[in-house]
Specification:
GO terms for molecular function: protein dimerization activity. It contains 14 helices and no strands. By secondary structure, it is an all-alpha fold. Helix 9 runs antiparallel to helix 10.
C-alpha cells in the first residue's frame, strides 16, 4: 500500500540499491525448492549458493528500478484501489479515495445510489471491524465483510476492483491456453475452452485421472451417477444445437451472397440491353439523316 502512504516522488526517488534497505537473505522470496536446496547444500557448494543469491538480489534490484520508471504511481484508479486495503482504513486519504471509486468504476452503482454509497463509506471507515490476520489476503477479508451485509454498496464496488487479477498465475493462463487452442483448434469457442479448463482443474484438484475418478468397483451393482449422465446428455444436446445454429447462420450468409450476386447479374443484363437499344436507336437516327 505504498501508493496510499507515500508520495509518488518519494517512491520514485527511493534508492533500491542501498543495502540497508534490503531484506535479510532468508526473507527474500526464492521458492521453497530453492530454499531447501540452499540450506541442504554441502560446504563445497556454498560459493555457488552465495553466487545464486547474489544474482537473485540483483534481479530484484533491476526489477525495482524498472518499476520505478514504468509503474503508474500517479494513476488515480490505482491510488483509489489501494484505499480498499483494510490496513489503510485509518489513513486520512482513504475517505476521499474510496468516495471517488464510483467515478472510476462506473458499471456497478447508479447515480441514485451515490449518496447511500458515500454514507456507507463513512460508516465503513468508522466501524470497529476485526483486524486482518497476518498474511491474510485482502479479498478474503473483504469477502467476510460482504457476507456480513453491513456495507453492500461498498462491498460490491470493492469486489469489482478486486476482480482485476494480475500476477504470474494470470500470465501462466495464457500459456495454458496455447496448449489447448492450437492451429488445429483455433475455432474453439470460449464456452468449450472454459469447459475443458474446468474439467482439467477438477482432475488436478482431485489428483486423479478421469478413469480413476469415475471408475466403478462393480459395474453391475454400483449406482449410476445421474448428474454425470444428465451433464453428458445436456452437453451433447447443447453441442448439436450450437452446430445447427452455426449452420443456419452460414446458410443465411451464403443465401445473402447469392442474392447479391443475382442482383448484380441482373443489373449487368439490364445495362447490356439498354446499351443495345441505344445503339439501335443511334443507327436509326443516322439512317434517317
Amino acid at each position: 500500500m505504498a501508493t496510499l502512504k507515500d508520495p509518488s516522488k518519494k517512491i520514485r526517488n527511493f534508492d533500491v540499491e542501498e543495502k540497508k534497505n534490503y531484506l535479510p537473505t532468508k526473507s527474500v522470496f526464492m521458492g521453497d525448492d530453492v530454499k531447501r536446496l540452499s540450506t541442504s547444500a554441502p560446504k563445497s557448494r556454498l560459493a555457488v549458493v552465495k553466487k545464486f543469491q547474489k544474482n537473485v538480489l540483483k534481479a530484484y534490484v533491476e526489477c525495482s528500478q524498472t518499476l520505478q520508471k514504468k509503474m503508474h504511481l500517479v494513476n488515480l484508479l490505482l491510488q483509489s484501489a489501494s484505499a480498499i486495503d483494510s490496513v489503510c482504513r485509518k489513513h486520512p486519504l482513504s475517505l476521499t479515495l474510496m468516495k471517488g471509486l464510483p467515478d472510476l468504476v462506473t458499471n456497478v452503482s447508479s447515480v441514485g445510489e451515490r449518496d447511500a454509497y458515500d454514507f456507507e463509506v463513512h460508516k465503513y471507515l468508522a466501524a470497529s471491524l476485526r483486524q486482518p490476520q497476518q498474511k491474510e489476503p485482502v479479498d478474503n477479508w473483504w469477502m467476510k465483510v460482504k457476507n456480513s451485509r453491513q456495507f453492500p454498496l461498498v462491498s460490491n464496488i470493492v469486489c469489482v476492483v478486486l476482480t482485476c487479477f494480475h500476477g504470474p498465475k494470470v500470465e501462466s493462463s495464457f500459456s495454458i491456453a496455447n496448449l489447448v487452442v492450437t492451429s488445429e483448434t483455433n475455432r474453439l469457442s470460449i464456452e468449450s475452452f472454459d469447459a475443458i479448463q474446468t474439467v482439467k482443474y477438477e482432475f488436478m484438484s482431485e489428483k486423479k485421472s478421469a478413469v480413476q475418478l469415475y471408475k466403478k468397483k462393480e459395474y453391475l451393482k454400483d449406482k449410476v451417477d445421474r448428474n454425470l449422465c444428465k451433464n453428458m446428455n445436456s452437453a451433447s444436446r447443447n453441442y448439436r444445437a450450437e452446430v445447427l445454429s452455426k449452420k443456419i447462420f452460414c446458410d443465411k450468409q451464403s443465401s445473402t451472397r447469392k442474392k447479391l450476386e443475382s442482383k448484380e447479374a441482373a443489373n449487368k443484363i439490364s445495362a447490356k440491353a439498354a446499351k443495345l437499344q441505344r445503339n439501335i436507336h443511334l443507327k436509326k437516327m443516322r439512317s434517317q439523316a
